[in-house]
Amino acid sequence: MDRPQYRILLIDDNAAIHADFAKILCGSRSASEIDATAAEFFGAPAGAPAAAAETGPVFELDSALQGAEGFAKVEQALQEKRPYALIFCDVRMPPGWDGVETLERIFARDADVQAVLCTAFSDYTYDQTIARLGRSSRLLILKKPFDPVEVQQLAAAQTEKWAAARRVEALLRDLRAAEHEARALASSLEMTNLALLTDKATAEAHADAQNELLGRFIDKLSGELTSLDAGLAPGWNGARLSKGLEDARVYVHLAKRDPAPLALAPFVPIEVCGAVLERLRETARQRNVELLGQQDEQGRASLLGDARLVEVSVATLLEFAIGCSTPGGVQLRMRTDPAGLKIEINAPTVKLAPDELSLAFEPFGTAHGLGPALARRAVQRLGGELDARCNAAGLALTLRLPMMAAERRLAA
What we know:
13 helices, single chain, 19% strand, alpha/beta, five-stranded parallel beta sheet, Rossmann fold, five-stranded mixed beta sheet, Heat Shock Protein 90
């Protein structure tokens, strides 16, 4: 176990006293001298081991011959952040400050240091000394002539008391810091709560405004589709234009607050996804993006659901992935299992920041338009889930649609 180490300052004008203190406190005496001191004080036989010398504190002793010199050493120790734990100070030190004045000045400078005043009461009475230095546990008076063991005991007790007081002060500082931190955290939580309430109100107002805007847009779009249907000559109603008008009608139904009921009918997922891939292959080619399709054999089985809504969801999300991709490839994977239909769209390289992805699925949230938001609504109408992620691996869109096999539904 490490032995504690303390700094002690001796202020005395007698050089011989300094040598004696070095022997007593710093172990510079011979083994026989230590044994003799132990035997004299404790009544132990000579030659017995001096356990205290091996297990007690370690002292670093500094010396000063005058009071002013001692005060300067205390100043320097404080500046170096290596303060003295204990000061032994003689009373009579002509021609400079006496011991009482010296400790008076030191106590005013260092509020923690312990002191032992060595006196024969020839210059000051006990009451006079206490009147000058105050009645305090940091001050002990050692009457001359003193015993070496007494000096050792005083040094050990006073330095440990100094260390204990510093530990208590450090604990109090930690407690005050913890209290301050707790108060700051409570204030921060209160401000955060207030900010969240404000943000919630702002978000609700923003959502209401978006819904109002979306409603007006849907009404206008419905009117335009009706006019377009009536105004087209039969010869101009080509397959591509018809498909676009049909998609637009699906979007309109999705955007309305009370959408039309699902049109449930048997459909083959592989055929729906294959048609989407073919329709968007030219769009992908123009962006230097290769479309890849992969499906399991179960995809040829017939499911019961709204095939048009599934097609619009897949097409819109695939088009979104193509638009976000840099030149490369976009893959569409389709799987079926007893839980329903799972469709994955992966784009390894995209020009889309992760924090932009959530905005893309909000109405009027980004430059991607209404498509992603309406696709999410279509998935929700089908009772499914849409998981969208963007990270170092690229963009990953996963649709899970809980559809029952058509033959099972018909049998039921």
